Amino acid sequence: MYSNVLIPTDGSGGTHQAVQHGLTIAQHFESTVHVLAVIELAQVYADGPPDLHAKLEERATDALEAVAKPAHDMGLRVRRQTRTGAPETEIIRYATENGIDLIVMGKHGRSRFHEFFVGSTTSRVLRKASVPVLTARIGEPERRTSFENILIATGGGPEAEGAIEHGLGLADAFGGSIHALYVLDPRVVQTDALRGYFEEEGNRAIEAVSTRATRNGIQVHGEMREGNPPERIIEYATQNGCDLIVLGARRRGDDSRGFVGSVAERVVRAAQVPVLTVRDRSVEETA
Fold first, then answer.
1. What predicted TM-score, i.e. pTM, was given to this entire model?
2. By three-state DSSP, how is residue 262 classified?
3. Integer Cα distance of 199 and 183 in angstroms
4. Which domains occur in the chain, in start order?
5. What mean pLDDT do residues 29-46 have?
């Protein structure tokens, strides 16, 4: 499922756990690890000492080595590269050019300022990437990567298909179990008829996950809750000790702004555990 895993790095502190997640997934799937450092154009052209670019290249080399060394120690194949440009643009371009199946990135934790996440490189990659993106909180306490309780938050739409596929694939690789959650949004179930319709949709969505998990010999628990979807997803993950949240992201054609304000974006921004965001593939097929 993941032949090529991309881990972008800028050498900043606190990203060790995100790197560890990426390397452990690569080890389970016998993936090639791609490590990418991007020197920002703004840094290159900023006023500074004459040897600024050389120092930035040196820092990028150190950042690459900090990921490549543990990858080599784990027996993984490693490719590394430094590029110059806008980080999100170069990350997406590299992923496209090299057949990347998964991008693993760190993200800052909950901030008082929503714009801090929305304007970040990670957020911009999430908006534009056509491949799954795994995000982990910068500064997350170090722990062994073991996705034993995986939450698939399903809405039953086209975007759920990829989330189910990747969630089950990871559960199978790590010997984990699956939690299938459907959240009824009270804003759209204001009549008995609508409630009945969406409850049926929820049951079908949960059953779709349960049937495939059972077929693959994976233990599964399904549940429906009502409330604000991002809050209920995070609440469920916390209460049930889930160590990974998997959810689909809907994007309208090429309008990357569709990710901002979505359930996926709000879960990624606030979750305390890693989140795997999987793009709705039907958009690519019909765009």
1. 0.90
2. coil
3. 9
4. 4-137 (3.40.50.620), 149-286 (3.40.50.620)
5. 84
